[in-house]
Amino acid sequence: MKKILLFFILLTAVSCDIIEYDGETRLVIQGQTVTPANAPIPGTSVKITIYKGLNETSDVISYGESDASGNFQLLIPAPKNENNFIRVELITPSSANQIKTFSSIMRKDFSVYKLDFGQIKIYNENELTQLTVVQNHVNPNNSISDIRITSGLQSEDVVEFNPVPPPDPTLWETYFKVLNNQMITLSYKVTDHSAAVPVTTEYHDSIRIDTDPTIIYTIQY
Amino acid sequence: MKAITLFFAILGFGVVQSQETPKEKAFFLEPLFRVYGIVPIPFGDNYLAQANDAKISAGVSMSMFEYHDFRLTAGFDHIYYDVNDVKFAGTVDHSRSNAVYGIVSYEIPVVKSLTLQPYLGGGWSEINFMKQDNILLNSNNSSVDDQQGAHFRVGFYTDYRIDKIFSFFAGVNYVQAKYAINTAPEFVSFYDHAQTVQVNFGIKVGYSKKEKYLRK
Predict the structure, then answer these.
(1) Cα–Cα distances in angstroms (integers) from residue B40 to residues A34, A77, B29, B74, B199, in the given order
(2) What global pTM score does this model have?
């Protein structure tokens, strides 16, 4: 009897880790991979993975390649749990190109069972610079938020559809992938909590991007 | 063993019934079983035809009585498919089409040992989706629920009697199934139906209208 009970407990534990799909619901994921000059990139490998949650069980539910026009279209059975994350990874035939990933996609991001990325520009890694923004917390009364690039071209390796906020906003680094040889504007908000009513100030810093593969920019707040 | 004894008892009862029943009697208790192979030929622009390779499969059917040459039969078809297009199926390795059906057939004697039985029927259908990693105790596994539906079928059998009990048979039928689906409008018709021509061949066990054949 104990063995039977143990078996069912084990079975239940294992079942909890299963990613379940609805065979009566099919989601369409499509897009077109192109170069910065809008030339199609055929043969781009597309992989779709479902995650139960961050750092949890995953399952590759589909894969394929873009056609001669750079178009790809994959249909997958929908995860039964609408909070499961969908991740789409694009790897072009040229290893010099960036690997593009669309992450933390959820059912709510689909419209009539379809998610259309449209044209996805894939850049050569040599054309990109990784900008690391270091937040240096010098004034304990201040907090920082909403760090983003408001002008200039960027092409992130990982596009988060539903970003999870970092667990510790202090001592945090933010990463951007931006194109070389341009001026960008980095915007952010600093809130001063020393007064009874917090005061928020928005800053816009101009940063020159050359051809270095990486650049570090520090915000003192 | 009990099941076998019961089977032959029912069969024997049927034989006695048939022998003792006058020809004019419309109702005959005649248990009849078919076990058959299926060569499925899916066609059309739909999931089973376009994203799968059909395999030789199997089915069974059973009928208990005949009334005015009409026969009511219940059966089960299990058709196996290998997925050949991940684009439409996802990482599903096999699809299985199951059907539970009822048919009404009409028996037409052709010659002494040959009969033709056209039939019409329908029933429940489903598609099972089997993923390779769907293994018990696999910590990284996943499962896909079935797709439910219903179907209509029309076809015929030709039975060739080899003795009082056994017959070989072959037949052809057309099955049109309709399945539940939620997807983008342009793909609804791809996933919501299946069309299959099935070539069947197998063995029929049972006693049916012995007198009719002997008098011909």
Answers:
(1) 42, 25, 32, 19, 6
(2) 0.82
CATH number of A19-121: 2.60.40.10
The answer, yes or no, to whether residue B24 has pLDDT greater than 90, is no
CB-side neighbour CA atoms (13 Å) of B84: 10
B27: nearest Cα among B69, B55, B57, B56: B69
| ipTM higher than the 0.90 cut | no
What's the number of domains chain B is made of?
A: 1
B147 close to A (CB below 8 A):
yes
CA distance B86 to chain A (A): 6
B135 to chain A, closest Cα gap in Å: 11
Q: Is B132 on the interface with A (CB under 8 A)?
A: no
CATH number at residue B86: 2.40.160.20
Residue intervals of chain A classified under CATH 2.60.40.10 are: 19-121
Q: What is the rounded radius of gyration, in angstroms, for the C-alpha atoms of chain A?
A: 22
Give pLDDT tens digits for B87-110. 999 999 999 999 999 999 998 989
A104 pLDDT above the threshold of 90: yes
Q: Is residue B128 part of a domain?
A: yes
Tell me the chain B residues in contact with residue A73 when contact means C-beta distances shorter than 8 Å.
Answer: 87
What is the four-CA torsion angle of A67, A72, A77, A79, rounded to 10 degrees?
A: 140
Is it the case that residue B211 has pLDDT exceeding 50? yes
**Are A100 and A177 a contacting pair, CB within 8 Å?**
no
Residues in chain A, total: 221
Residue B55 domain flag: yes
B15 domain residue, yes or no: no
Residue range of the domain that includes B53: 31-215
B142: enclosing H helix or E strand: strand B142-161
In a domain, B18, yes or no: no
Q: What is the DSSP letter of A141?
A: T
